[in-house]
């Protein structure tokens, strides 16, 4: 059994594949966090931290003081606010009398097989109840009637622990939730670096590492989306940890809105790690009998550095976060017309691109922004999801059918969360956008955000999109979102509920996505937020791939894809070859390098194939053939990072099939160097006993020598170059 409870010392021991997580019920019913780390057989140590006894160090006690016990040094699982723990609380409620103090204590627990769905929220899941075991610990604050259920799930096949908390008002009076984080845990020391994925539009998920120091260090989003500025992920890394060695604790929130991840290093060098919905500008009125479910947290412990942590996230997310008919299917190679035409296209020009793309081997054509309403630039028509007859006089039904007849599947762009001032929808419903009465409605990319906290708005969008998806031949949807929230308020919420708007918006969005993806199970959905502005597990639950970044420059993409791979598997990362000079950074890179970088993700093109020379078309044809041969390895295999582009003039990564018999290794060099010395690239994850044939050179090497001695990197001439090796198990018996 992965979860055991020992009555004699009141210990819960959660055992994942290679990880233990231990909790104890201690004095007066508080919940002590004891351990998270490498799996141990049993826990016998006495872990209560002894109180040091000097009253001047600030400790306070409850009246029934117990010798050696102080909440302010007790490592806790879900600390309250207002008792004698003066560190950062996991939650805070306000009672009807205005007080904000509460004190949660153990009430009961249960252990059961399987895993419950989280009401209205995305989460990892099980297909059969034997796949996982769940522990629910119920805590209660007697005075207010607040009950908190902490849920922990341990999977049989994935080395993860997931957590969430549910706040329930079992009292007779209203409660206001002011803070409700999903998880909190205390480490007994602060000997860590904090890793985060930070950035901006077009340079998402840059690796940032800093040493923990005394006090709070946090990342957060207040933008109404998880954001490109900070991904809802942190990792605590032991000082000696790196890609392949040392202890790493990865924590990822399954949520797409405002979040906070905070580490508080306290006076005795303990570290309190917390993650959840950002308490800033948040509150939630909880009437008697109501509950508030927090988003799920996925926690991965690795004793072999970041690489093992990432592969654990990848496996779980591929199989037990992403859903739908495309979860286990190879993804189609697409061509998107955005960078080829922007808003300037006709039915004929679209079909011409599609015809040429088909000849090159592309499988899916995606019509991007500009096909609806009167949309000829970004100032109008969001919300008017009917065809732009000026551009597509024969309608979408005909166009999608024609594209199918050319031999390609047809995909369509939507930005369903937005509304343009110049739109029929806005003229009909001027109060359907997020706004605060009497205040200016700020624009971002000339548009406003629809108020998804209102169910009638969500229903209208579901209806409009359903109409499009059922009456045309659409196999793919690109779901875009191009601005953050401002003047966050809803016309229909009471004054004391206005701070619920941002989270209610997320619940509305999740409902819309749930209904549409359920109604159209054969459609492949890809999410996008000006590129990778909402690349998070919440979105992946509904849409199994994300447009990784609007920056399609191959060299920029090395960093972006490398950073993204910390948590998210390659199959989820949309990666396209675009034209040169690149539209974002104006860099000119070889077509082969652009292809090799994009093949590290979910491959496609975003350029005008008509404008390509015959020689370029031949290269594209080859790239597509090559990707079709390797895509099962890239999309479903294990991923190893070999050289970091963040620290070097070169970069490398590799993919290996689960049976270790097929391998793809990609090497990239940014700037040319003179008089270079011989450099070996050491591979990882191979079977040391297996022999591998390198297809490109037809040479055979042992897995052990490829890993321990390495493979020789060929001399590459010029800037922005790349080299790809494909390896296959060499079967001696065939000789
Ligand atoms: C932003 C996206 O990231 C682009 O790929 C493109 O779809 C544009 N929006 C269209 O407006």
Task: Please describe what this structure looks like.
The protein has 735 residues and is of the alpha+beta class. It folds into 3 domains: 231 residues, Distorted Sandwich (Beta-galactosidase, Chain A, domain 5); 214 residues, TIM Barrel; 80 residues, Golgi alpha-mannosidase II (Immunoglobulin-like, Sandwich), CATH 2.60.40. It is 19% helix and 31% strand. The chain has 12 helices and 38 strands. The strands form 7 sheets. Strands 6, 7, 8, 9, 11, 12, 14, 15, 19 and 20 form a 10-stranded antiparallel beta sheet that branches. Strands 21-22-23-26-27-28-29-30 form an 8-stranded parallel β-barrel, surrounded by 5 helices. Strands 5, 10, 13, 16, 17 and 18 form a 6-stranded antiparallel beta sheet that branches. Helix 3 packs parallel to helix 4. The longest helix has 23 residues. The protein is globular. The two termini are 47 Å apart. The mean pLDDT is 96. It binds (2R,3S,4R,5S)-2-(hydroxymethyl)piperidine-3,4,5-triol.
Assign the CATH class of the largest domain.
Mainly Beta
How much beta, percentage-wise? 25-35%
How many domains?
3
Radius of gyration, whole Å = 27 Å
CATH superfamily of the largest domain: alpha-galactosidase from lactobacil brevis
Instruction: Please give the number of β-strands.
Output: 38
**Largest sheet report:** 10 strands, antiparallel
Shape: globular
CATH topology label of the largest domain: Beta-galactosidase, Chain A, domain 5
Pick out the low-confidence regions. Answer: none
Q: What is the level-2 CATH architecture name of the largest domain?
A: Distorted Sandwich
Task: Output the number of helix runs.
Answer: 12
Protein structure class: alpha+beta
Q: Ends: how far apart?
A: 47 Å
Family: Belongs to the glycosyl hydrolase.
InterPro entries: Aldolase_TIM, Alpga-gal_N_sf, Alpha-glycosidase_related, GH, Glyco_hydro_27/36_CS, Glyco_hydro_36, Glyco_hydro_36_C, Glyco_hydro_36_N
Active site: 480 (nucleophile), 550 (proton donor)
Catalytic activity: Hydrolysis of terminal, non-reducing alpha-D-galactose residues in alpha-D-galactosides, including galactose oligosaccharides, galactomannans and galactolipids
């Amino acid at each position: 059994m992965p979860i055991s409870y020992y009555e004699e010392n009141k210990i819960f021991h959660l055992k994942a594949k290679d990880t233990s997580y231990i909790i104890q019920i201690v004095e007066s019913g508080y919940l002590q966090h004891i351990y998270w780390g490498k799996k141990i057989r049993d826990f016998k140590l006495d872990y209560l931290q002894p109180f040091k006894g000097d009253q001047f160090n600030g400790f306070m006690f409850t009246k029934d003081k117990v010798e050696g016990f102080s909440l302010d040094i007790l490592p806790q699982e879900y600390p309250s606010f207002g008792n004698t723990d003066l560190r950062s609380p996991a939650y805070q409620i306000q009672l009807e009398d205005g007080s904000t103090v509460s004190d949660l204590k153990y009430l009961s627990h249960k252990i059961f097989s399987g895993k419950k769905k989280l009401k209205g929220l995305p989460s990892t899941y099980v297909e059969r109840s034997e796949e996982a075991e769940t522990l629910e610990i119920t805590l209660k604050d007697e005075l207010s009637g607040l009950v908190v259920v902490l849920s922990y799930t341990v999977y049989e096949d994935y080395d993860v622990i997931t957590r969430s908390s549910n706040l329930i008002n079992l009292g007779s009076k209203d409660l206001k939730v002011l803070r409700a984080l999903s998880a909190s845990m205390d480490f007994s020391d602060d000997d860590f670096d904090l890793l985060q994925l930070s950035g901006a539009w077009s340079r998402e998920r840059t690796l940032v590492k800093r040493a923990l120091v005394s006090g709070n260090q946090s990342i957060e989003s207040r933008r109404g989306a998880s954001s490109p500025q900070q991904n809802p992920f942190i990792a605590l890394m032991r000082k000696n940890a790196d890609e392949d060695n040392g202890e790493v604790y990865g924590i990822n929130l399954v949520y797409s809105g405002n979040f906070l991840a905070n580490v508080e290093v306290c006076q005795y060098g303990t570290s309190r790690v917390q993650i959840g919905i950002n308490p800033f500008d948040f509150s939630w009125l909880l009437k008697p009998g109501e509950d508030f479910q927090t988003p799920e947290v996925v926690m991965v412990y690795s004793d072999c550095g970041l690489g093992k942590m990432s592969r654990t996230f990848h496996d779980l997310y591929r199989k037990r976060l992403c859903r739908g008919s495309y979860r286990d299917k190879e993804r189609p190679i697409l061509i998107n017309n955005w960078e080829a035409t922007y808003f300037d296209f006709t039915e004929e020009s679209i079909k011409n691109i599609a015809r040429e793309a088909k000849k090159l081997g592309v499988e899916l054509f995606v019509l991007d922004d500009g096909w609806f309403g009167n949309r000829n630039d970004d100032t109008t028509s969001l919300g008017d999801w009917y065809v732009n007859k000026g551009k597509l006089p024969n309608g979408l039904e005909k166009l999608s059918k024609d594209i199918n007849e050319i031999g390609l599947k047809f995909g369509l762009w939507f930005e369903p969360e937005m509304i343009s001032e110049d739109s029929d929808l806005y003229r009909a419903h001027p109060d359907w956008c997020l706004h605060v009465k009497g205040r200016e409605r700020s624009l971002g990319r000339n548009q406003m955000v629809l108020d998804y906290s209102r169910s009638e708005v969500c229903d209208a969008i579901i209806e409009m999109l359903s109409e499009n998806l059922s009456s045309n031949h659409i196999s793919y949807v690109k779901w875009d979102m191009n601005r953050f929230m401002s003047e966050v308020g809803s016309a229909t919420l009471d004054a004391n509920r206005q701070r619920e708007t941002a989270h209610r918006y997320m619940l509305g969005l999740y409902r819309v996505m749930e209904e549409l993806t359920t109604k159209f199970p054969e459609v492949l959905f890809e999410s996008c937020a000006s590129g990778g502005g909402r690349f998070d597990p919440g979105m992946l639950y509904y849409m199994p791939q994300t447009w990784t970044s609007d920056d399609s420059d191959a060299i920029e993409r090395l960093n972006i894809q490398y950073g993204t791979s910390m948590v998210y598997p390659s199959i989820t990362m949309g990666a396209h070859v675009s034209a040169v000079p690149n539209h974002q950074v104006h860099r000119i890179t070889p077509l082969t390098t652009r292809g090799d970088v994009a093949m590290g993700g979910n491959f496609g093109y975003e350029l005008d194939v008509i404008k390509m020379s015959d020689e370029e078309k031949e290269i594209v044809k080859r790239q597509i053939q090559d990707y079709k041969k390797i895509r099962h390895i890239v999309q479903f295999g294990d991923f190893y990072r070999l050289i970091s582009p963040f620290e070097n003039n070169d970069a490398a990564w590799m993919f290996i099939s689960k049976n270790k018999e097929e391998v793809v290794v990609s090497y990239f060099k940014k700037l040319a160097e003179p008089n270079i010395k011989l450099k070996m690239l050491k591979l990882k994850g191979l079977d040391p006993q297996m022999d591998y044939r390198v297809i490109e050179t037809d040479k055979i090497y042992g897995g052990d020598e490829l890993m321990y001695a390495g493979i020789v990197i060929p001399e590459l001439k010029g800037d922005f170059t790349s080299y790809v090796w494909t390896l296959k198990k060499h079967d001696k018996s065939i000789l």
